[in-house]
Amino acid sequence: MNLATLLKKVLYSVSLELPNCNTNPSAVLVPLRESDGDVYLILTRRASNLPHHAGEVSFPGGRFEPERDANLLDTALREAEEEIGLLRDQVEVVGALKPIVTAVTNFHIYPVVGVVCDRLNYSVQTQEIARVFEVPFSFLLKPDAIEPFEILFDGGVLKNYRFYYDGEVVWGATARIIVQLLDIAGSEIEHFLRVKKNSSAVQS
Questions:
Q1: Is 118 exposed, middle or buried (0-12, 13-18, 19+ CB in 10 A)?
Q2: Which CATH number is associated with domain 3-203?
Q3: Stretch 126-141: mean pLDDT
Q4: Closest CA to 146 of 171, 110, 167, 123
């Protein structure tokens, strides 16, 4: 079984309906790439001059634009192409995660998960993206890789997550999306990597 087939069995189906709530609809692509016996999560660091979430680590994505997007799947794929040059025909959409709502900016973020081809040549839109980098699941699956913490907000307490990798701190909505992905598909990906490793050992 390949990675795309495995993920299609455990992820939510992609919904083409817009959220019926008083939030800013947006979508991100959660791109996964299999290479060299590991699975990699593709992330970006946003440029420091942006009006929202400047300098933060995020997935490729952005706000729903009704004049350009038929649905939030269109948004995720369009933004990934614009921001990092990831073409639609390089992405196999395998499912989705539950939406995340940001507390401060009130964005309703719909995460679409896609498996991309092994070798990519990123074409980065430098006005929006400062860096593209990848995080291996061999790191994310470690028990102490991701740290939970709490934030005081609007008189209440918000549970959040963060981790550090390659000089970057990943937290907020992006970390919450990653934790959700690990909760749903982490054990399957771990098993997939173990099988691949054992198969390679037998062949060698």
A1: exposed
A2: 3.90.79.10
A3: 95
A4: 171
Distance in angstroms (rounded) separating the CA atoms of residues 118 and 65: 30
Q: Is the pTM value of this prediction over 0.90?
A: yes
Domain ranges of the chain: 3-203
Instruction: Please give the residue that has the higher pLDDT: either 119 or 36.
Output: 36
Chain-centroid distance, C-alpha 30 = 3
**Buried/exposed 101-111: b ≥16 CB within 10 Å, e otherwise:** ebeeeebbbbb
Which of the pair, 1 or 131, is modelled with greater confidence? 131
Please report where in the chains the tokens 């933004």 appear, as a residue. Answer: 79
pLDDT digits (tens, 9 = 90+) for 77-101: 999 999 999 999 999 999 999 999 8
Would you say 123 and 117 are in contact if contact means Cβ atoms under 8 Å apart? no
Inter-CA distances, 194 with 11, 189, 197, Å:
20, 9, 5
Three-state secondary structure call for residue 166 = coil
Closest CA to 26 of 102, 137, 126: 102
Which DSSP state fits 88? G
Over the chain, what is the mean pLDDT?
A: 91
